[in-house]
Design goal:
alpha/beta, Rossmann fold, three-stranded mixed sheet, membrane, transmembrane, transmembrane helix
Amino acid sequence: MSIHVFSLPAKCSKFNDAYPRLSQHFQQICSLYIAIKDHFIKSYDLWNHKTLEILIAIILVLLFVIRFWTTSFRTPTKDSQRARTALQALQTVLVPSCSLWPARYIKLVKHTSNHRTGSRIVVPLSMFLQDVCDGVIELRDPLYDLEDLIDQGVRAYGCSVSLKVEWKWWVEWLDRMLRVNASDMESHDGVDSSNFAVISAQHIDWLIHPLTTAPPPSTDHGTVINLDIHPLTHLATIQLPKGSRTTLEFTSLSNHISFLSTKHILCLIPFLAHRLPSSLSDVLATVNDTPSFKLSTLTNATAAYADTLAALSTKLTYDPIARQQCVDELGIKGWRKRRLMLEFETALVQKGWLERWDVVLEVR
C-alpha cells in the first residue's frame, strides 16, 4: 500500500494555525477598547477626550501585535514535539488507508502530548476493531504487533501504543453469556442445536469467527467434533459403534486468566458471533458424566494451532484465489473482519491466553 502525503506551504500552514488566535486576540482588544471608551474617556473634556482616545487605541494595537506575534510565530514548543513523536509511535503500529489521519486519532495523539508525564497512546478497542474492518486504518504487521498491542503495548519512540477495553464490553459479554446459557438449555430440551449461535448486540454482531467449519475426520481417531461450534450437550447425542473413537477439538481459556478480567474479555473477542469457548475442566467433567464414552488421550495442540491460524491469515491475505473467494462470499468488509479475527486469535494463542486441546474418546 502506497501512502501519498500532501502538505500546504509553510507560510500558509502558519497562517491557518494563527488565524483563530488572531481573531480571538482582536475581539479581546475591541472589547477592552469599548469598555475604556465608554467608562473612562468620557469623563475628560473634548480635546483631552480625543487625544486620550487615540493614545489608548495605539497602545492597545501595539499590545495586540506583540501578543499575537509571540503566541503565533514562536519556535515549536515541547508539546508540539511530543505530539510529533507520539504520531511517529502510532505510525509504527497503525497506518491510515488514505494520506490523512482521521481526526479521532489526531485527538488521541494530542491528548498524549498534553500530559507531560505520560507517553502512552491508548486506542479504544471498539474504535480499533471498527476502523480496521471498515478499512479506515490497517495494522503494519498484525501477526507481530497484535501480540504486544493487547498486552503491555508496543513501544516506539519512547511511547507506548496499547488498546483500551471499554466498560461496555463487560456488560455486553455478561449478556452474551446469559444468551448462550439459555440457548444451551433450549437445545437440551429438544430444540435444533444448529440454532445455538445467538448473535450479540448490534454494535458487535458483525464480528465473525474465522473457523466456522469442522476439520476433516482423522483416520486414526475417528470423527472430529469441533466444540467451538457445538455445545457440550451435543456429546450426549452422539451414537457410534462400540469400540470406535471420536476426537473432540476445542479452544479454551488458560487457567491463569481471571474471570471477567481485561485479559478474559480480550480472549472472547474472536467468539463474539460464535460460541463461548469451553473450559478444559468443563469438557472433562462432561466426558466423565457421559457413560457411553471413556477418555483415551488428552493432547495440548496449542503450538500447532497457532501455526495453523497464522498460515490461514497469511493465505487469506496474500493468496489471490482464497482472498477472492472470501470477498465473493462475505464482501470486502467481511474479508477484513475474517482476517482480523484470525490475526486476533493468533495473537491470543501465541500469548498463551488461549489454548487448543484434542480429546480422543473411545465408545464403551
